[in-house]
Each structure stands twice: as structure tokens, then as C-alpha cells.
Design goal:
The structure holds two protein chains of two kinds.
Chain A: E1 2-3, H1 5-8, E2 19-25, E3 28-34, H2 40-47, E4 66-69, E5 72-75, E6 88-90, H3 103-110, H4 120-133, H5 139-145, H6 157-181
Parallel strand pairs in A: 1-3, 2-6
Antiparallel strand pairs in A: 2-3, 4-5, 4-6
Chain B: E1 7-9, H1 14-24, E2 28-31, H2 37-42, E3 50-53, E4 63-65, E5 71-74, H3 79-83, H4 88-91, H5 93-98, H6 105-110, H7 113-119, H8 126-132, E6 136-141, E7 144-149, H9 150-153, E8 154-156, E9 159-160, E10 167-173, E11 179-187, E12 197-206, E13 209-218, E14 225-226, H10 228-232, H11 241-254, H12 265-290
Parallel strand pairs in B: 1-3, 2-3
Antiparallel strand pairs in B: 4-5, 5-10, 6-7, 6-10, 8-9, 11-12, 12-13, 13-14
Helix pairs in contact in B: 11-12
The chains are: A alpha/beta, B alpha+beta.
Bound molecules: flavin-adenine dinucleotide and FE2/S2 (inorganic) cluster (2 copies).
């Protein structure tokens, strides 16, 4: 058990409300005591050390802090950690396995879908949620699904190409999987 | 940014939630999608002592029609739930047109319609939509339930008629008189921005005659505007270029836009008329086809 209120403030006192929560992040279960005002973004970054989740605007506008909450993209700067009690969170660290990149990451790498990389974790998670629902999206559908994630570098062209390539990669993987089983 | 300190509870029944609100004596706030409340708390525009998170209450995420046609949207129905419902466009065309243009896709996975109505942002889209549809809010408190018309629910910027110990359970739209049609058009500078101009139109018709109509305007006044005169003049008429033109003019006249970074007052007034015309003209076809 980690005590987290010092992440919020130094002067936690006896009447500081503390809640215990159990959350599964990238498949690993964590039980923690936190102050209710701890944001999900800070739980992930400070308590769990998963600094791939970026905080950009901190005002719910940019989408850099996007994580998947039970599979749906959410802005982790706009949710309290306590709300994740009993839920599953996926951060960008949850995409790659030890030996290989996720097809989404391959797509971003191959198509130069990033420059500074600040928006990239959020972009990739929004893209992941899209491809889970719609494995063969059009360019318009990709732009629509990513419209809550701002990028100040790329002009979006290569991001869209990256997601198209990831979608093709995922479909190929599935076809290959089917060939193996048949 | 951190909000100031608060205590938190996530009850699993409506009765428990109401009891928590009652015991907090006005110092608690309801947490629904959090897409307005959390940013306000981080900026310390709001500093509730307690949050009552309703997300763990089962049975509030619905959106569905009763057998008599009453359409109900539960307190945990997210904007996205409506956006992804392919049948909504025939059942509730005005709501179906509005859902995809609220905020951005990530905000829509969490934000709720009822939360938006309660938040009472003068520039919010749902208040115009629900006013045009003649919708109401159902509030539940220690002494039971009551309905409040959406057009009256908001009594000031970011203020509503709920008592501190009342929870908004759902919003509902009464059954149509005849067939339902309508639409919502929104001009925004970029996705995630509030409306430069938003126009909600609801038309109920029998044959080619309008039986009931509602027009709500977003972003062109200090708050949502119900263009009652414009809607009234359609009743008993068919939708023809003349009636459409007059309704568009009246809606434009009643709007009170201000010149700002989103555009000049004259431009916004012009867009109001254009949007009313566009929506009503698209319905004219529907009426004729049905006839
Ligand atoms: C980037 C961004 C862009 C946006 N753009 C738009 C836009 O274009 N158009 C638009 O209309 N909105 C927009 N919004 C607001 C968005 O629609 C929110 O989802 C909505 O205003 C609030 O809904 P919520 O469920 O998140 O409510 P919350 O933030 O949880 O709550 C808002 C308020 O309502 C109260 N409340 C909520 N539910 C209840 C209930 N059941 N009973 C009693 N009180 C309740 C809360 O106590 C709080 O005071 C935007 C938000 C963001 C962050
Ligand atoms: S940091 Fe959360 S939306 Fe920008
Ligand atoms: S790559 Fe720099 S913000 Fe997107």
C-alpha cells in the first residue's frame, strides 16, 4: 500500500479525506490510498511512474493526457483517481509488449507520425480506441476520431497516414492469424 | 492544478445520493461526467466540500422511448451514447444532430446530457435542443419527484432550479403530435469550441400541416433563446418558402448576438436566419415525401 496524499500536499492532516482504491493499469492491479482530489493523470504519472501520459493544457482542451478508461478514451486531467476504483486503465506504456511494438506504434514510426512527441501518447490511444471499434476507417473517420487531440507540430497529415497504416497492419495480422488457425 | 480539498462518496443508489446531498446541506456537488465540474474545480471557480459521484448508480445510462413516444435520457447517458445510436436520427432527429457536435470526441465519452442541462452554461447546446423539443427535467429529492420544463429550468448563468438535495434523474421529451422531424446546426470555429451560432429546430406534423414547432438558439444572446414567435407562426401551416422565410426572419430578429472574436452581430444574425431556413427546407422535402 502506498500512501499518496503527500503527492497532493505536504500538510495532510488527520481530517484529510483519504480513499482506498484498486485500479488495474496496463493489466497490473494496484491498491492505493489517495486524496480524492488527486487527478487520474497524476496517479498514473507520479504514483505509478508511468510518465508516458503527458499533461499539456491541464484545462481539458488538448487531449495529450488521454488514457483508455475501460477501453474508452478519457482526458486523465479531468477525472479524479478515485473514480478509477474498480476500473481498467490503459496508458501508452500498455501498448507495446516487451518484445514488439503495437501496430499503432509501428504506424507512427513508419509514417513519421510525430515530431516532438508530446501529443503522441494521447493520439495513439485515441487511435487505438477507434481501431478497436472500426478496423477499416476512412481518412475522414480518423480525422473525426482524433479531433479531440491537438498536435502543434505535424499538421496531422502523417498522423492520419500512421493510423491508416496501423489499421492495415492490424488487418494483416488478423488475416495471418486466421490463416494459421485454418 | 489541484482543486481545493473535498471529501468524496460514490453511492450506488439514488436514495443514498439524495441523502448525502441532504446531509451536506448545500456544500456538496453532484459529479456526473465531470467535463464541466472538474475543470471549474481545478481553476477554483468551484470549491465544493464534497462530491457525490453518481457514476456508480446502476440504471441511469439509458436513452429510450416509452410506448407512448415519450423519450427519456437518463442522468448517465453520455453524449457519445447518443452519437453512436444509429436509430436516433429517425426517432429524435434534433437530438441526433446535436450529439456529435458537442465538445470533442474525448469529452463526449464522459459528458452527459443531463449534466450539461444542470451546468446551465449560457452557451451550451443541449438547452436549446431541449427547449425546442419542449423537454423537461425530472428532479428527485427527499420528498419525491417533480418535473421542470427545460425552458424554465435555468434561472441564470450556471444556475438551475434544483434544490441542494435534489438529483436530476433524467430529461424527457414528450410524445410528438403527429410525425417528428427537425435538426440542429452549429457553426463553430474548430471542434471543441462552443457555438458561434447554434440553431435547434423541432417540427411535429400531420400530413403537410405543422402541428407543433420549437426553435432554440445557442450562442446569440446572454443565454439560450426560445424563438417562440418564429415557431408559433409555423403551426397550422405547411412548410413552404414563404412560411420558412418568415420564421427565419423572426428567429433572426429575436436573437441578441454580440460582436466578438467569433464574428460580428450582423453576421451571427444572418447565420441564424440561414440555419433556420436550411433546417426547415430540408424538412419540407421530408413532409412532401411522406405525403
Ligand atoms: C473542451 C470542452 C468543450 C466543450 N464544448 C461544449 C460544446 O460545444 N457544447 C456544449 O453544450 N457543451 C460543451 N462542453 C461541456 C460538456 O458538454 C459537458 O459534458 C457538460 O457541460 C457537463 O456534463 P457533465 O456530465 O460532464 O457534468 P459535470 O461536469 O459532472 O457537472 C456539471 C454541473 O452539473 C451538476 N450536475 C451534473 N449532473 C447532475 C445531476 N444528475 N443532478 C444534479 N446536478 C448535476 C454538477 O453538480 C455540476 O455543477 C465542453 C466541455 C469541454 C471540456
Ligand atoms: S492535459 Fe488534459 S486535456 Fe490537455
Ligand atoms: S508531435 Fe509535437 S505536438 Fe504533436
Amino acid at each position: 500500500m502506498t500512501s499518496l496524499f503527500e503527492v497532493v500536499s505536504e500538510e495532510a492532516s488527520a481530517d484529510t479525506p483519504i480513499r482506498r482504491l484498486t485500479v488495474t493499469v496496463n493489466g497490473n492491479q494496484h491498491t492505493l490510498d489517495v486524496e480524492p482530489r488527486l487527478l487520474l493523470a497524476h496517479l498514473v504519472r507520479q504514483a505509478l511512474g508511468l510518465t508516458g501520459t503527458h499533461v499539456g493544457c491541464d484545462t481539458t482542451n488538448c487531449g495529450a493526457c488521454t488514457v483508455l478508461f475501460d477501453g474508452s478514451p478519457v482526458k486523465s486531467c479531468t477525472m479524479f483517481a478515485v473514480q478509477a476504483d474498480g476500473h481498467e486503465v490503459t496508458t501508452v506504456e500498455g501498448l507495446a509488449s516487451a518484445s514488439e511494438l503495437d501496430p499503432i506504434q509501428e504506424g507512427f514510426k513508419d509514417e513519421h507520425g510525430l515530431q516532438c512527441g508530446f501529443c503522441t501518447p494521447g493520439m495513439m490511444l485515441s487511435a487505438k480506441a477507434l481501431l478497436n471499434e472500426n478496423p477499416d476507417p476512412t481518412e475522414d473517420e480518423i480525422r473525426w476520431a482524433l479531433s479531440g487531440n491537438l498536435c502543434r507540430c505535424t499538421g496531422y497529415q502523417n498522423i492520419v497516414k500512421a493510423v491508416l497504416r496501423a489499421a492495415a497492419g492490424l488487418r494483416n495480422q488478423e488475416d495471418a492469424g486466421e490463416d494459421e488457425t485454418s | 492544478m489541484y482543486p481545493s480539498r473535498f471529501s468524496y462518496d460514490a453511492p450506488t443508489t439514488v436514495a443514498e445520493a439524495i441523502d448525502l446531498l441532504r446531509r451536506a446541506g448545500g456544500e456538496a456537488k453532484v459529479l456526473a461526467g465531470g467535463q464541466s465540474l472538474v475543470p471549474m474545480m481545478k481553476l477554483r471557480f468551484a470549491s465544493p466540500e464534497m462530491l457525490v459521484d453518481i457514476n456508480n448508480i446502476p440504471g441511469l445510462a439509458y436513452h429510450s422511448a416509452d410506448p407512448d413516444g415519450t423519450y427519456r435520457i437518463g442522468a448517465l447517458c453520455r453524449h457519445e451514447d447518443l452519437e453512436k445510436d444509429a436509430e436516433l436520427v429517425t426517432q429524435q432527429p434534433t437530438i441526433a444532430a446535436a450529439a456529435p457536435v458537442i465538445a470533442d470526441p474525448i469529452v463526449r465519452t464522459r459528458g452527459t446530457v443531463v449534466g450539461s442541462l444542470c451546468h446551465a452554461d449560457p452557451q451550451g447546446d443541449w438547452a436549446s435542443v431541449m427547449s425546442a423539443l419542449g423537454g423537461s427535467i425530472v428532479a428527485e429529492g427527499p420528498s419525491g419527484r417533480r418535473s421542470i420544463q427545460c425552458a424554465e429550468f435555468v434561472n441564470g448563468p450556471f444556475q438551475n432550479l434544483l434544490e441542494f438535495d435534489e438529483l436530476a434523474i433524467e430529461a424527457f421529451v414528450p410524445p410528438p403530435v403527429g410525425a417528428r422531424s427537425g435538426g440542429y446546426l452549429k457553426l463553430e470555429r474548430r471542434i471543441g469550441d462552443f457555438a458561434t451560432v447554434g440553431v435547434a429546430v423541432s417540427v411535429e406534423s400531420s400530413g403537410d400541416q405543422v402541428t407543433r414547432a420549437g426553435i432554440g438558439l445557442t450562442g446569440v444572446g446572454p443565454s439560450t433563446i426560445c424563438a417562440e414567435a418564429a415557431a408559433e407562426l409555423l403551426v397550422g401551416q405547411d412548410l413552404n418558402p414563404e412560411t420558412i422565410h418568415r420564421a427565419a426572419e423572426l428567429a433572426s430578429e429575436i436573437s441578441q448576438p454580440r460582436s466578438d472574436h467569433r464574428g460580428s452581430a450582423a453576421y451571427k444574425r444572418h447565420v441564424v436566419a440561414t440555419f433556420v431556413t436550411r433546417i426547415l427546407s430540408s424538412l419540407e422535402l421530408a413532409t412532401r415525401e411522406a405525403a
